[in-house]
Write a structure and sequence with these properties.
The chain is an all-alpha fold and 227 residues long. The protein has 2 domains: 29-128, Hypothetical protein, domain 2 (Endonuclease III, domain 1, Orthogonal Bundle); 134-227, Helix-hairpin-Helix base-excision DNA repair enzymes (C-terminal) (Endonuclease Iii, domain 2). The chain has helices at 3-16, 29-39, 44-57, 61-76, 82-100, 108-112, 119-128, 139-148, 156-166, 169-185. The longest helix has 19 residues, at 82-100. The structure holds iron/sulfur cluster.
Length: 227
């Protein structure tokens, strides 16, 4: 894909949604950290159902440690892998207090040293809490980047590196949210809604769907598989 097309794709995504936001509910970097850790392999919806009550009970590392494992698990038990997530969150709270005065750190290294925080979670926090132009590649972004030809890559790290290289600077801060939302609601895994896609004429996917009821369909693919 050439640079002019890439620019036009982001110009259209920006025009449609000038200030994209995370769909997770949070009111501080700590709450965002907790919500993102909880959202691994779970829907934002399930996380948003649990976090208002959890944050009323504990919205700081100190308060979450006081809540304890059982107390924390009670709030998040409807979220997948909640036991592991509770253990990781309490470990993260301890480290935040011991090493960062109870604050969420602003560097990738310090974030990734926290239990339950990998590269993607660190990127989301750097971008959404601290305004860094990082791009956290999840399954939606991986799919959109490969299908469209925007930034093809065989795994999420390859796609992230390519996106950071090719996304024009003016779009880098919000690229992550535009691409996630596009993948979640339009360029869906099993049934991309190509007829109502605002970048249809720019997208280089060879198997675009033709209409609502029929036409060609793209099958859902996971990172690591060829699209
Ligand atoms: S045209 Fe279809 S495949 Fe291409 S980005 Fe839009 S929804 Fe996805």
């Amino acid at each position: 894909m050439n640079a002019a097309k890439r620019h036009e794709i982001f110009a259209r995504l920006r025009a449609a949604n000038p200030a994209p936001r995370s769909e997770l509910k949070f009111a501080s970097p700590f709450e965002l950290l907790v919500a993102v850790v909880l959202s691994a392999q779970a829907t934002d919806k399930s996380v948003n159902l649990a976090t208002p009550g959890l944050f009323r009970a504990a919205n700081s590392p100190e308060a979450m440690l006081k809540l304890g494992r059982r107390g924390l698990e009670r709030h998040i038990r409807r979220i997948g892998l909640y036991r592991t997530k509770a253990k990781n969150l309490l470990g993260a709270c301890r480290l935040l207090i011991e090493k960062h005065s109870g604050e969420v750190p602003r560097t990738r290294e310090a974030l990734q040293a926290l239990p339950g925080v990998g590269r993607k979670t660190a990127n989301v926090i750097l971008n959404t809490a601290f305004g860094e132009p990082t791009i956290a590649v999840d399954t939606h972004i991986f799919r959109v980047a490969n299908r469209t030809g925007l930034a093809p890559g065989k795994d999420v790290v390859a796609v992230e590196k390519r996106l950071l290289k090719v996304v024009p600077e003016e779009f880098r801060l919000h690229a992550h949210h535009w691409l996630i939302l596009h993948g979640r609601y339009v360029c869906k895994a099993r049934k991309p809604d190509c007829p109502r896609c605002l970048i249809n004429d720019l997208c280089e996917f060879p198997h675009k769907s033709k209409d609502e009821g029929g036409g060609m369909r793209a099958e859902g693919k996971k990172p690591g598989k060829k699209l």
